[in-house]
């Protein structure tokens, strides 16, 4: 007979793509997860995962099971927050936050001690990565995204606008000289994103500065681009709030900016989960208090 615990193990492996990652997510052993998945497959008479040394991928049967497993998870989450449920008033549990790496590393990570001080029984997982997160498959409970999401059973609140500008290091400019016009960028080393790994059109801002932009060094991480530009690799488009006070970096053509916005997003099914809602509210309130950091003119 299928039970919720079977689905919990199934979903953990599906999300992590490996037995070890699922075990770490569930706080148990790799052997136990492997055993539970095998037992679940035997009970169903279906193979749910193709297991290889590099990880696990869903079979067709596994993909067919996903919608029902997610629906069951949603029902269990709602049940846990029903009035009268034991412990429903206590803010506890694990919340996973997905965020762009510039925002996650340069800003949000430093705010997490304040969140933990408010809710000592809350476990926080921050995934600052240059990628999109699937909230419907619970890759994250909450996501900070660039630009307002347009589809899905999602709720969203705008956090703040922010700007990006052209920067180079003092060492680079001493060696190569400063461009006198935007068109002069064609004579310089340029640092930008890996084109085929850009996960949202909002990141395609380099050519808004100069249509002829062609990066000689491509890096998928915004934070790593900052490191490369600071080390003298070339000229790059960097987040103003990340580098504004960096003594090694020089703003080029400071009147020319790209404007973007951060939004916090969560699945509507998580709306009534206390530890998700308080974390979302904390992010919104904290960013709004620091709005001048992201957009000094506001």
Describe the structure.
Strands 3, 4, 5, 6, 7, 8, 9, 10 and 11 form a nine-stranded mixed sheet that branches. This protein is of the alpha/beta class and 298 residues long. The chain folds into three domains: 4-80, Winged helix-like DNA-binding domain superfamily/Winged helix DNA-binding domain (Arc Repressor Mutant, subunit A, Orthogonal Bundle); 93-160 and 261-294, 3-Layer(aba) Sandwich (D-Maltodextrin-Binding Protein, domain 2), CATH 3.40.190.10; 161-260, D-Maltodextrin-Binding Protein, domain 2. Residues 81-89 have low confidence and may be disordered. β1 and β2 (55-58) form a beta hairpin. The longest helix is centred in the first third of the chain and has 21 residues, at 60-80. It has eleven helices and eleven strands.
Shape: elongated
Through-space gap between termini: 58 Å
CATH architecture of the largest domain: 3-Layer(aba) Sandwich
CATH topology of the largest domain: D-Maltodextrin-Binding Protein, domain 2
Structural class: alpha/beta
What is the CATH C level class of the largest domain, in words?
Alpha Beta
Share of β-strand residues: 15-25%
Please state the average pLDDT score. 87
Profile the largest sheet: 9 strands, mixed
Radius of gyration: 22 Å
Q: Helix segment count?
A: 11
Q: Share of helix among residues?
A: 25-40%
Task: Give the assembly state of these chains.
Answer: single chain
Family: Belongs to the LysR transcriptional regulatory family.
Protein name: Transcriptional regulator, LysR family
InterPro entries: LysR-type_TF_proteobact-type, LysR_HTH_N, LysR_subst-bd, WH-like_DNA-bd_sf, WH_DNA-bd_sf
Domain HTH lysR-type: 2-59
